[in-house]
Write a structure and sequence with these properties.
mainly beta; two-stranded antiparallel sheet
Length: 43
């Protein structure tokens, strides 16, 4: 996986939310702020 760079657009990715729905970064296009949290050990 390539490393993220400052002041550059993020690469698109898709993750599963806690309801089991797939959510992609592209679905938030046009929004001003996005907060992404990774919880290690969260089951």
């Amino acid at each position: 996986m390539s490393r993220a760079e400052l002041n550059k657009p993020a690469s698109n990715f898709t993750l599963t939310d806690f309801h089991g729905n797939e959510v992609s970064l592209a679905s938030f296009q046009g929004k001003k702020n996005i907060l992404l949290v990774f919880n290690r050990g969260f089951v």
